[in-house]
Design goal:
By secondary structure, this protein is of the alpha+beta class. It has helices at residues 14-45, 51-63, 75-93, 204-207, 209-221, 227-261, 272-275, 282-288, 290-304, 349-367; strands spanning 2-10, 109-114, 118-121, 124-127, 136-137, 150-155, 161-169, 180-185, 191-193, 198-199, 264-268, 307-311, 337-339, 346-348, 383-384, 390-391. The protein is globular and about 80 Å long.
Length: 395
C-alpha cells in the first residue's frame, strides 16, 4: 500500500468560507503562540517544550475569556498544527531545516483534518461543522474503493482554495523494460540525456518577469492598509502562482515521461543550495527547479518499480572523455563543446556528461562501485579536504 495525495481546487459557499477562514486563523494563532512559548522557554530557561506540553497549553487557552473563539472551530486542525510544529522542531534539531518561522496571514494558510473531523459519503466530502459538502472540482477520480485518511484544506496567497485528499492504495508497477538513461542538469538547457536529447528550459519566471515587475511596482505605490494595496498584493500573488503552476505542470509531465520510458535513471547528486550562491547563475538555477525535478523522479520511481541512481557530485562527468576516459584539467562553463586531447573525440559538453553519468550509474547499480576517482593524478581534478573545502591537489 502506498500513500498518495490527490489535490483539487474547490469553491466554498459563503458560509463555508467564513468557517474555513476562522479555522485557518485559529490554526495560525495556536501555532504562533506555541512557537513563541517554545522559543521563550529555550532562551530564558534552556528548556525544550514538546507537543505534550503545548497540547495542555491549548486546553488552557480555550478556557481564557479572550480566546473563547477557539471553541467555535474544530479542535482537530488545532492539534494537527501543534503536531506540525513538533515535526518542524524535530527537523531543526536534526539539522535538516532552519528554525521554524511564524505563520503570516497574507500567505493564506492550511488546516489538516483527520478522520474524526470529516465525513466521506457517496464521493462527497463533509468537513466538521459544515452542513454542505465542499464544492470540489473533480479534475481526476480517486481510485475505486479508496477513502481519504487525511484531508488538508489550503488557501494560497492569491485567494484560491485547494483540498488534498490522502489515500492508501496499491499503485500498479509499470512493465519492466530494458532501457537506462543518464541525465545531466544543464545551463543552456534544462537537462540533457545520454541518448542525445536536450530538454529546453521553459524559463517560466523569465516569461512573466516583466509583468511581475510591473505588478510589484504598483504594489509599492499603494498605501499600506488600503483596499487598493490588498488588490495589488493579490495581483502579485496571482502572477507568482501562475509561475509556480506552469513550472510544476511542466516538471510533472517531464518526470512522468522519463519514468515511463526508462527502467534505470541516473542523475547527479547536486548541491543546489551551494550552486545558488553563484549570483550569475542563481536565477536560472532557481527557475529550472532542479531539486523538484529530482524529488519527483525519486517518488515516481518508487511508485512504479523503477531504479533511480544518484552519482557523487564530485564525479567529473563533464571533464571526462566518454570514449577513452581522459580527464581534462579545466573546462569552463562557457565551453559547450570540446575535443579530447588524447583520442581526438569531439564532445558536446552536456551529452558527454549525461553518458558518463549513465555509465557511472550502471556501475553503482551492478556492483556498488565508487565512481569518484580518488587516486586520479590530474592537476585540475578537484577534491574535498578534511575541512569540507575544495582545493587542487599538489602536483
Amino acid at each position: 500500500m502506498t500513500q498518495k495525495a490527490y489535490r483539487y481546487r474547490f469553491y466554498p459557499t459563503q458560509e463555508q468560507e467564513q468557517l474555513l477562514r476562522r479555522t485557518l486563523g485559529c490554526v495560525r494563532l495556536v501555532y504562533n503562540r506555541a512557537l513563541h512559548t517554545r522559543t521563550e522557554a529555550w532562551y530564558e530557561k534552556q528548556e525544550r517544550v514538546d507537543y505534550k506540553h503545548t497540547s495542555g497549553m491549548l486546553t488552557e487557552w480555550k478556557k481564557q475569556e479572550d480566546l473563547q473563539f477557539l471553541n467555535e472551530v474544530s479542535s482537530v486542525p488545532l492539534q494537527q498544527g501543534l503536531r506540525n510544529l513538533q515535526k518542524a522542531f524535530t527537523n531543526f534539531w536534526a539539522g535538516r531545516t532552519k528554525y521554524p518561522n511564524f505563520k503570516k496571514k497574507r500567505n493564506g494558510g492550511s488546516a489538516e483534518f483527520t478522520r474524526a473531523a470529516f465525513k466521506w459519503k457517496d464521493g462527497q466530502l463533509f468537513l466538521a461543522k459544515c452542513s454542505e459538502p465542499l464544492g470540489i472540482r473533480w479534475s481526476r477520480t480517486i481510485p475505486a474503493g479508496c477513502e481519504p485518511s487525511t484531508v488538508t484544506v489550503r488557501l494560497n496567497a492569491s485567494g484560491r482554495w485547494f483540498v488534498s485528499l490522502l489515500v492508501d492504495h496499491t499503485i500498479e508497477l509499470l512493465p519492466t523494460i530494458d532501457r537506462a538513461i543518464g541525465i545531466d542538469a544543464g545551463i543552456t538547457s534544462l537537462i540533457a540525456t545520454s541518448d542525445g536529447e536536450k530538454i529546453v528550459n521553459p524559463k517560466h519566471f523569465k516569461r512573466l518577469r516583466y509583468k511581475l515587475r510591473q505588478a510589484q511596482k504598483a504594489l509599492s505605490r499603494k498605501l499600506k492598509g488600503s483596499n487598493n494595496r490588498e488588490k495589488a498584493r493579490i495581483e502579485v500573488a496571482r502572477i507568482h502562482a501562475a509561475i509556480a503552476d506552469s513550472r510544476t505542470d511542466f516538471l510533472h509531465k517531464l518526470t512522468t515521461r522519463l519514468v515511463r520510458e526508462n527502467q534505470t535513471i541516473a542523475v547527479e547528486d547536486l548541491a543546489v543550495k551551494n550552486m545558488m550562491k553563484n549570483h550569475k547563475l542563481a536565477q536560472a538555477i532557481a527557475d529550472a527547479s532542479r531539486s523538484q525535478l529530482v524529488r519527483q523522479l525519486e517518488y515516481k520511481c518508487q511508485w512504479y518499480g523503477r531504479t533511480l541512481v544518484k552519482i557523487d557530485r564530485w564525479f567529473p562527468s563533464s571533464k571526462r572523455c566518454g570514449n577513452c576516459g581522459h580527464i581534462v584539467d579545466k573546462l569552463p562553463l562557457d565551453v559547450r563543446e570540446w575535443d579530447c586531447p588524447e583520442c581526438g573525440t569531439h564532445h558536446d559538453r552536456d551529452i558527454n556528461a549525461a553518458q558518463n553519468i549513465l555509465a557511472a550509474g550502471l556501475a553503482v547499480k551492478v556492483c556498488g562501485a565508487n565512481v569518484r576517482p580518488d587516486g586520479h593524478k590530474s592537476k585540475g581534478q578537484l577534491r574535498k579536504t578534511s575541512n569540507g573545502k575544495k582545493q587542487k591537489p599538489k602536483s
